[in-house]
Amino acid sequence: MVQQIAFIITLGVAVYFIRKRILLIRSTIKLGKEKIINDNKSARFKNLLLVAFGQKKMFKRPIPAILHLFIYVGFLVINLEVLEFVIDGLFGTHRIFAPYLGGFYNVLMNLFEFLAVAVLLSCVFFLIRRNILKVKRFWATEMNGWPRLDANIILLTEIVLMIAILTMNASDQVLQERLSDHYPATGALLFSSLLVPSFQSLDTATLIFIERAAWWFHIVGILAFSVYITYSKHLHIFLGFPNTYFAKLEPKGHMENMPVVTNEVKMMLGIADANAVSSATPGRFGAKDVNDLSWNNLLAAYSCTECGRCTAECPANITGKKLSPRKIMMDTRDRMEEVGTSLAKNGSGLNDGKSLLGDYITKEEINACTSCNACVEACPVLINPLEIILELRRYVAMEESGAPSAWNSMFQNIETNFAPWKFSPSDRFNWANELKK
Ligand code: SF4
Ligand code: SF4
Q1: CATH classification of 259-415 is 1.10.1060, yes or no?
Q2: Does residue 373 have its Cβ closer than 6 Å to ligand 1?
Q3: Which of 41, 143, 175, 388 sits most deeply, having the most CB atoms within 10 A of its CB?
Q4: Angle between helices 385-394 and 295-303 (to 10 degrees)
């Protein structure tokens, strides 16, 4: 009874904090500009299935992809076991599904254990890769401090949780032999049975203590981890799904026009729709802060895994420029969190004297972008850092007239000569005159 009450309180506290964070994340994403994305649903579901569920883009690098798949499948499947943990915790039962599922329960438990070991080994590999082999993309400056610690906390937590499952199962198997009334038979468990000999010599009271401690450690760990995820880059395990669904479907080179500018041009040509002009008038050209970006840009920032594949492919970054597309996404998320948290406490929110452009992302960074889309191609969850960069650049160019002087002369040429070069349109075919001679 005491355990049941303790479990209900623990579960209630976790649900309270998870709900609070989900509401905050939702309202923070809603800071973004409205954008209706409901076209081509079949292509969107295909992206969801192949890229999010199937992890298609991860397989460009097969070894990390397979290990990541173990962690991902392990996370999904092992959490089925958590359902039994919760029912046992609420009703004071022990392995409630075992008598009902019979031999299938043994199959399930062995599958869970296989995945637990696979997750454990994969996490060890990833820890070594990050901290001992020091793969370059995990050691960029934007990964210093919390982001690196966050990644290590996640990997270590998963290792410890998997060890708890195996410990619980091993002590449980010995207890099944000694107190069969209380401990339903699970059948032989492949991996935890390797630990059984070291538990045989322990007395029953100690074994019960170990089994209960491992059970509590695992379930409290899972609940605490669930709260932690909402503060962490690990949020991608949930938000990666909607992000792939709402990802851009147009060809990568396609840039969204600003309707108000398009209509301005059409007006000059005498083909503008007057209603479209008034309804498309924006408050601001481009983006200075997170509320100037669309909601799906903000969802993407929360979905970023911080893997750095985008930065590793970015030609600006490779050639030593200050730009890192991963940092663009991390900065966007940090600014969203700052504004969202402030608003939740009735603080100044967006009016805190700061902005995404300037306080988080500099002009030097956005000006270094070649708009090549390599980052978009590299991203395993279909994030588009270029969209954010272009919006920030639009703000600088159109609201501040702050584009680099070399660009301004190019803009001037386009305006007067309809081409980036300083030649009159009437001279455009002069090169062909040479051919006649
Ligand atoms: S589009 Fe810009 S940020 Fe992305 S890879 Fe190319 S240069 Fe880098
Ligand atoms: S934007 Fe995509 S590729 Fe870049 S760090 Fe985030 S998840 Fe990785």
Answers
A1: yes
A2: yes
A3: 388
A4: 130
